[in-house]
Amino acid sequence: MLLIEIFVYLGIIAAGVSGVLIGIKKQLDLFGVICLGVTASLGGGIIRDLLIGNIPPVAFIKPSYFFVSLIAGLLAWCFYDKLSTIKNIIIVSDAIGLGVFTVVGSNTVMVYHGNNSFVIISMGLITGIGGGVLRDIFAKEIPYVFKKEIYAIASILGSVSLILTYDKVPHPFALYICLFVTFASRVLSVLLKLNFPVYKVEK
After folding, report:
1. What is the pLDDT of residue 74?
2. What is the pTM for the complete model shown?
3. How far apart are CA 142 and CA 183, in angstroms?
4. Which of 11-15, 40-44, 162-166 is predicted least confidently?
5. What angle do CA 203, 145, 109 make, to 5 degrees?
6. Are 158 and 166 in contact (CB under 8 A)?
7. Which of 4, 67, 85, 199 would you call most buried, defined as having the most Cβ atoms within 10 angstroms of its Cβ?
8. Crossing angle of helices 30-52/2-25, nearest 10°?
9. Per residue in 64-109, pLDDT tens?
């Protein structure tokens, strides 16, 4: 499971950087930017843990998550000009983060609450997109997941793949399949420019 733990930190870094980039664009001060980065990194997991009664949330039990997010945020602040030139790397990292958070959320529910498929998918989704939704709300933006590309669906597909494979392959492989399905769905949606239709209203 070491690889999953490595990916967790990569996901935290990717989400933290995304929060920092938005905070800088919104002209927040350093404290506000870091708060936005930490929210994006840890918010989804905290919401999940509160909803399933896993208290205190893992984010508070493992302070290393916070410090990794903090360091990533400070580095993103310092090297903002260079980060703006590597958009594709950020998109790939973000897709990995979505996959990892979906895996962690879905697997946590399976460990604590059995095989309730709806709860598994819901908590995988909340863990995957919750931090980003909070980030956008705090930045006074319509959450990205509601208006651009296939994001939530990628998380849902990943959770479904975990449910389907959990008892059929060794546990670590089921987690990696979930990660891959989520990651691949997200990346393909970006490459193929797939979006949900938007109802056009005359102004």
Report:
1. 93
2. 0.85
3. 23
4. 11-15
5. 145
6. no
7. 4
8. 130
9. 999 999 999 999 888 888 776 666 766 777 788 888 899 989 988 8
Q: What secondary structure, in 3-state letters, does 72-120 show? A: HHHHHHHCHHHHCCCHHHHHHHHHHHHHHHHHHHHHHHHHHHCCCHHHH
Given the structure tokens 């509601």, which residue do they identify?
Answer: 146
The CA distances from residue 189 to 34, 102, 118, 151, in Å, are 29, 17, 24, 8
Instruction: Give me the mean pLDDT over the 118-133 stretch.
Output: 91
Give me the DSSP letters along 2-28. HHHHHHHHHHHHHHHHHHHHHHHHTT-
Q: Residue 177: enclosing H or E segment and its boundaries?
A: helix 171-191
Q: Are 19 and 37 contacting, i.e. CB atoms less than 8 angstroms apart?
A: yes
Residue 87 is which amino acid? K
Is the Cβ–Cβ distance between 122 and 95 less than 8 Å? no
Cα separation, 53 vs 28, whole angstroms: 33
CA angle 44, 77, 22 (to 5 degrees): 50
